[in-house]
Specification:
Length: about 575
């Protein structure tokens, strides 16, 4: 798909070509960049508009068809050049029109540029529940949780920008036997003051301590008793557990805020221990629950019903498991929110779990499961902070901030920054996010502070730097109104490259919205930054004649605006100084 931005009259073109407009829309695409230039703005692929695109031996024929087609089409006020490529017809837009249309659109739509494109006009607006982050209380907030947090936030941002309704949900690991241990641990080693002031760290320490003590049978028994009391809703036990949860959430909220992330709902496994029983009853009633000799409850997931694949949903003592709670949670969420789609942003190590979850829901007759999706991501290897292995999210944030501060201190402009700590944090986060989003989410990658924090090359630091530079250009020369500019001034190849690239923004949003991969936007923004940096060098504002300076300023303003929009979608706060 491709942006037309009003350039092509599809119905006209469809008459000339004698093709249905739908075909045409799908067949027109961006011209790939070679050596930083595009030979044209749009291309029509012949193979995809003709019916017989099945056989390769047609290739020479396609070329011929392209040539014939190119000859039949006439240039007009919009299209200034039409040429045939290998199997494609290439269109070049009138340069002045390109400049005028793109700049007008970017500056008019502001933060809505791209999302208002015709491309999205046929996409129905949906309500999406996005579950992400979901750490476990008293356990490590590992890098997988960080990845889930930034990916989920990105998906939510993108959907909101595209006009969908989004519920951001955090599903805490706040139930299970470990809370028996934690409760006993707290009675032994806990400190009420520390629980209030630094709950995450304190509960983690208590949990580590009690795990050591749990080799002793007596502690084990106490932990079992504590958890049983929890399950029986003993008031005192429950009130201590509730403090663990509440204080932890307070601290999570504070730290997520540093990341620029918020949640509409803090759910958790604890919500579903009762409802899990109902799920087991339903499974039983539907004849889906089988008992093993050991007394555990399983659901047969195999096609031939020979138990070659199954999922355990009940312990021998009748209690629920992780998957049972997820079944209950899914049904409850759907009932409560009646959403069109549910997305789980969780590491690919849990792919099996989600496959089983969806299979069981399907067997139970919930057809909406077709609209549930596990967005999985790969492993991040080797992230360490000065404190060693990552245990708390806050350590990562502190580390990236202090590393960035150090880097900034070695450049001379930093002294003038109003709040270097905050700038360092925002730039550092951009670095983490861009490193993480550069590849396919499903691939694993080796984490590197140095690579992420490089100021040149394809990094978040570079994006922030470009944004800050473009911003200060505006500060220095003031914002120009489009009405004042003469677009004929923007005919240099470096200006055209920026304009052509700005034109493509909606396509990139479209692509990311289809496969939920942030990498399309990342590579788009990096290219935009490189193009803008080149243009900034070759097309000076200072010292140019007023008309020229104004037109260039307008171009840079548009580039900065789109850069900022894209960065925000990725979860990055653009800085204005660095
Ligand atoms: N708390 C889990 C963990 O840290 C992740 C939860 C994922 N979401 C879910 N609905 N199961 O592994």
């Amino acid at each position: 798909p491709c942006s037309f931005q009003g350039f092509f009259n599809i119905s006209c073109l469809s008459k000339v070509l004698d093709l249905p407009p739908e075909n045409l829309i799908k067949s027109i695409s961006a011209v790939p960049v070679s050596k930083k230039r595009r030979v044209a703005d749009f291309q029509l692929s012949i193979a995809s508009v003709t019916e017989d695109n099945s056989s390769d031996c047609l290739a020479p024929d396609l070329h011929l068809q392209a040539q014939k087609l190119a000859e039949r089409l006439k240039c007009d006020a919009v299209v200034s050049e039409i040429s045939a490529g290998p199997g494609t017809v290439n269109f070049t837009i009138n340069r002045e029109l390109l400049a005028k249309t793109v700049l007008r659109q970017v500056l008019k739509d502001g933060s809505e540029y791209g999302v208002k494109s015709e491309l999205f006009s046929t996409v129905p607006k949906q309500k999406a529940l996005i579950e992400f982050s979901s750490p476990n209380i008293a356990k490590k907030f590992h890098i997988g949780h960080l990845r889930s947090t930034i990916v989920g936030n990105f998906i939510a941002n993108l959907k909101v920008a595209l006009g969908h309704e989004v519920i951001r949900m955090n599903y805490l690991g706040d139930w299970g036997m470990q809370f028996g241990l934690l409760g006993v641990g707290f009675q032994l080693f806990g400190n009420k003051e520390k629980l209030k002031t630094s709950p995450l760290q304190h509960l983690f320490e208590v949990y580590v301590q009690v795990n050591k003590a749990a080799e002793d049978e007596n502690t084990k028994k106490l932990a079992k008793d504590f958890f049983r009391k929890l399950e029986e809703h003993d008031e005192q036990t429950l009130s201590l557990w509730k403090q663990f949860r509440d204080f932890s959430i307070d601290e999570y909220i504070r730290i997520y805020k540093r990341l620029g992330v918020h949640f509409d709902e803090y759910s958790g496994e604890s919500f579903y221990q009762e409802k899990s029983k109902e799920v087991l009853n339903m499974l039983e009633n539907k004849g889906l629950l089988q008992k093993t000799i050991k007394g555990t409850g399983i659901v047969d997931l195999s096609e031939k019903k020979d138990l070659s694949s199954f999922s355990t949903v009940m312990r021998s003592d009748g209690t629920s498991l992780y998957i049972t709670r997820d079944l209950a949670a899914a049904i409850d969420r759907m009932n409560k929110h009646n959403c069109d789609t549910m997305i789980y942003v969780v590491s690919k190590s849990q792919s099996n779990h989600f496959q089983h979850l969806f299979q069981i829901l399907k067997l139970m007759g919930y057809d909406w499961v077709e609209r549930c999706q596990h967005v999985s991501f790969g492993l991040v290897q080797g992230m360490k902070t000065r404190r060693g292995e990552v245990i708390f999210l806050e350590d990562v944030l502190n580390e990236v901030r202090s590393r960035m501060l150090q880097n900034m201190a070695s450049t001379k402009t930093t002294k003038e920054i109003e709040d270097p700590m905050e700038t360092a944090e925002k730039v550092g986060l951009a670095a983490l996010i861009i490193q993480d989003f550069q590849g396919l989410l499903s691939s694993d990658y080796q984490f590197s502070w140095d690579r992420a924090l490089q100021s040149r090359g394809d990094t978040g630091v570079f994006l922030q730097y470009t944004h800050a530079r473009l911003h200060s250009l505006e500060q220095m020369h003031g914002n120009e109104q489009l009405t004042d500019i003469n677009v004929a001034c923007l005919q240099e190849p470096d200006a055209i490259s920026v304009l052509q690239h700005l034109l493509r923004y909606d396509e990139v949003l479209y692509r990311s919205s289809q496969d939920l991969q942030p990498k399309h936007i990342v590579s788009y923004l990096l290219t935009l930054s490189h193009l803008a940096a080149v243009a900034h060098k070759t097309l000076p504002v200072k010292g140019s004649a007023p008309e020229l300076a104004q037109a260039r300023l307008c171009l840079f303003q548009a580039a900065r605006s789109v850069l900022a929009n894209g960065m925000k979608l990725l979860g990055i706060t653009p800085v204005t100084q660095m």
